[in-house]
Amino acid sequence: MSERSLNILIVGGGIAGCSAAIALSQRGHAVRIVEKQDAWRFQSSGIFVYANGLVSLDELGLLDEILQAGFPVPAGRNAYFDHKGVPITDTFYPSADNGRIPAILGIKRAEMHRVMAQRVDALGVTVTLGTTVDAIRDEGDSVRAVLSDGTEETADLVIGADGVRSAMRALIGIGLEPRYTGFGVWRSVHRRPQALTDKIMMMGPGIRFGIMPISDDMLYTFGTLAEPKSRFYDPAGWPEHMRTKFADFSGPASLFLEELGPDSQVLYTAVEEVGLELPWHRGRVVLIGDAAHASTPFMGQGGAMAMQDAVVLAEALALHETLDGALDAFGKARLPVCQFVQGVSHAVGEAGAKELDGDLEARNADLRKTAQEKVDQFYGRLAELNAEAETALRKGAASG
Ligand SMILES: Cc1cc2nc3c(=O)[nH]c(=O)nc-3n(C[C@H](O)[C@H](O)[C@H](O)COP(=O)(O)OP(=O)(O)OC[C@H]3O[C@@H](n4cnc5c(N)ncnc54)[C@H](O)[C@@H]3O)c2cc1C
Q1: I need a labelling partner for 261 at 20 to 30 A (CA). Which of 128, 129, 203, 283 fits?
Q2: Among 9, 19, 32, 35, residue to substitute to test ligand 1 (most atoms within 8 Å of Cβ)
Q3: Which CATH class is domain 7-178+273-399?
């Protein structure tokens, strides 16, 4: 298959879809994206990209532009405070490639998308906005997709990169619905005081408030707490809700909470998870990104997992003789990594939600003792799993 150029249809132009389009067209495949939104619209604030995600961006050839558009946190420092602003401890995330790749970068999500969309365009990928797939027919040696504009597309491979609420999952007969996690996330965007350069995590009892620079002049804040299922908040009231919900926070949070008003950029998200068992493909259709493995955001890794899916999928297609072999190997390589991230992220969220007021001193003492060790263990294990996945991907190719 390494020599053959495939005709590939990608459904969804988010992080996973754009990354896949870049990785695959760089390897000579003919790629088209269909995206449901009628214009690129990113109603979001910021996103963290840790070193492993930046490595994928490097492999996609986007690292320099992303570093320019975002804000690499000096020394990868994360400063923990309690909710009253008393410092608890600092941790440092690992960089990659002997420090060439920073430990952690904050970036406005729309900026990340701008960089990706420009590259997609420069590579000649056709992007059709305002369009989705209504039906899929696998015809053995090709797959036909009926698009919502009434046209039909024949492809060698269809990639479902349509996010946590993926319609492609159902179209290929997977009846898995996203699971509500019990958490809501409130995010807001502000001007960055020049002295604020760390990632900040403020730890209340069962409630968190974080601050992260995303550019030379902007930062975003994110507050997480338990929220009842199906709780609807009218977007017009989001700034006021955010201010009220995190009113117990002071110290570094105060300035930003006080700033919140009707014109603030605030976003509320009820967090859902997807844990799809293998296989992630049916015939010639494969699911990637959140469509296959949406995670809670506590490790800030969902975007990185989506980008790495794209890189590994392109590699699997190059290494394996048959499409089925490549898709099978792709899923097997990615599942352990994504499940590990999901599991740790889920556990972090659950542990935080169970805290009570009276537990805080013990919690803080534990943080001082173990927080750095936990960071090191997480990234150490992630690196091991990635190395195992790479070996498995290559071994399968040699034997199959
Ligand atoms: C509150 C919160 C905070 C997060 N913070 C971080 C973070 O700091 N760092 C990080 O790495 N990750 C973070 N994540 C996770 C990250 O956002 C996701 O993992 C990532 O966006 C997944 O990319 P994706 O392309 O798979 O899905 P999406 O980003 O959801 O993109 C899917 C795309 O498909 C389109 N689409 C949907 N349905 C259809 C359809 N039927 N047809 C055509 N197109 C369709 C959508 O319009 C969209 O463009 C966070 C998640 C949440 C909920």
Answers
A1: 203
A2: 35
A3: alpha beta
